[in-house]
Give the backbone structure.
Amino acid sequence: MIKKIYFATTNQNKFREAEKIFSFHGLKLEHLKLKTIEIQSESLEEIALNSLNQVLSKCRLPVFVEDSGLFIKALNGFPGPYSSYVFKTVGFEGILRLMKGVKDRNAYFLSVVAFGSPNHKPKIFVGRVYGRIALKAKGLNGFGFDPIFQPGNLKKTFGEMEVKEKNRYSHRAKAIKKLVGWLKKGKYFNSKL
Ligand code: ITT
């Protein structure tokens, strides 16, 4: 079984989270710092598949990309697929401002992992974590909206967790665990797709 898989991402935190899961399962994960042009779409799956195709057109490797977003119920799913842009422009402070006085704090993170290689059809894995938007930012760990997201019924935000603890709950960990499970079953390496 090939043990080396590549994760194409410009986000060091995403890589660190994924690497922990891979190494726990005895698999080696390599960081491919490739920048892709993120298309505008309401579908994370479409964005991930498009990024994967861009990566595969540049390198012949077993590789995956991951696209994720924060969906807030009271904001009709905003920022969703636009999370990266919203974070870069108004940050989590902007989201806290939009949520000021809003009682319904329900939200979820969604992660879509797209895995492929030059000779194999892309395969998609999805992970989701439900939680709530905190009333104020807490914690310095992680990235993006971590300081304002409380998974499940916890009072603690992702920003207050080490990678290992975040990986117990996170959308990304769920999707990547599915990918690892699939790789370990040998469905990818043994298939004739
Ligand atoms: P790559 O596309 O290069 O992988 P990116 O950071 O641009 O890196 P996305 O396009 O998937 O990643 O953007 C997702 C954004 O959603 C990200 O920048 C964060 O603002 C937010 N986000 C996603 N997952 C998150 C998480 O686990 N914790 C906090 N914020 C997260």
